[in-house]
Amino acid sequence: MGRRRDHKPGGKKFTADGFDNFTGRLGMGQDNLLAASGYSPGRYATRSRIELDDMYRSSWVVGRMIDVVAEDMISGGVEIRSQMDPGDKEELLRQMRRTGVQARLTDAIKWAGLYGGAIAVILIDGEDLSTPLDVSAVAKGAFRGLYVLDRHQVTPLDEGITELGPMLGYPVGYRVHAEALRGQTIHHSRAIRFVGVELPDEARRSEQYWGGSMVDRAYDRILALDSATHGAANMLYRSFLRVIGVDRLREILATGGKAEAALLKMFTMVRQMQSNEGITLLDKNDTFTTHGWTFAGIYDALQAFSEQISGATGIPLVRLLGQSSKGFSTGESDLRTYYDTISTKQEDDLHAPMEALFAILSQSIWGRSLPDGFDFVFRSLYRPTETERSQIATADAQAVSALYAGGVITRAHALAELRDSSRASGRFEGITDKDIEEAKKEDSVPPLPEGRLPEELAGGWPGAGQ
Length: 466
Description:
This protein is an alpha+beta fold. It is built from 15 helices and 14 strands. The N and C termini lie far apart (107 Å).
């Protein structure tokens, strides 16, 4: 409910909307602890490279939340869907591995997640990095891979992109501070750009058009988990306390001298003699007691902090911490949801850069552009079980066999399709390029008229020519 209130006669008026209970002091408009809470501009970790470096190197949770997403976005690889020769498809993927493209893209996504932004510079031998990239002009063998720079190693130029498109308004280039390319300017067309967490326009401008670190959203939860973990570890040292009541202790400490030395000598002897089968010697007026410590509820608290970090990062516990699911849940549904999120990020952040890299590789390998209709898809991260792989192989083999028997595809095409399906099923991997080439030769032999034998056999069969 909403109503107007005055703080004092003649004071400013405001309208509070929402639940309110004046008698019980409930609601955000009342004087209670909850109403005093709020959010304010904080000390964003994004702006402190040194702290982020320390967290990444010393906190295994931070390391996992940064590494896991980057590795999952790249590790599945891609499947080329085009009318290209199967050998050419394999060559494209082979050259991508040889030039280290996948590893460098993984690094770029990692540092973007950690620092809020990073670029992967496209290295073309003999070309000026400050000029726009012309893919059609890339010489054969000129592609040299990628060089990764995080946001703190470059300064975006003040000039913005004016061409209509998805990068309108973003920096036209970057000035490099890193040792390898120090002082050079990178044109935006030669830089594959990644950000950690996308920010609204005003916040993005304040970060020089970069995003935010993934650590920011989970910062307080990470501190809570690490603090609770260290606190629990320290409690182990106090899990079993031995307490000795010494007669006239204050008097002994106040007197000092021989009395205090005798006291220290006594406890040195106690420590030396006390064991599982040892004894504790005390004065008849002294007392000896033990106190145990219970750890009930500590694991539940640590688990709750871990779950909050999982929620903040969007990574399920089974993937983030390697922690098995409990109860009736197998964790499979959580992983499938996470893999769907990764698939979305791949399409949004990786598809266009990978398409550009394939075009550059084609020019560098063969000196020609990619065929019309060239496309690719990211392979699913979900790993089928052995039973599922067997079912996939059987279904693929039956489908391809039916198409071949019906004359829809050739034998060479059938072999190529079976080999491509091996990525999902693990079967038919033994089909080689030589097998496909031999099948092409057989497919190219025209069929003989019905009832007629090949010439090389006509004279060799009993009764031939009669």
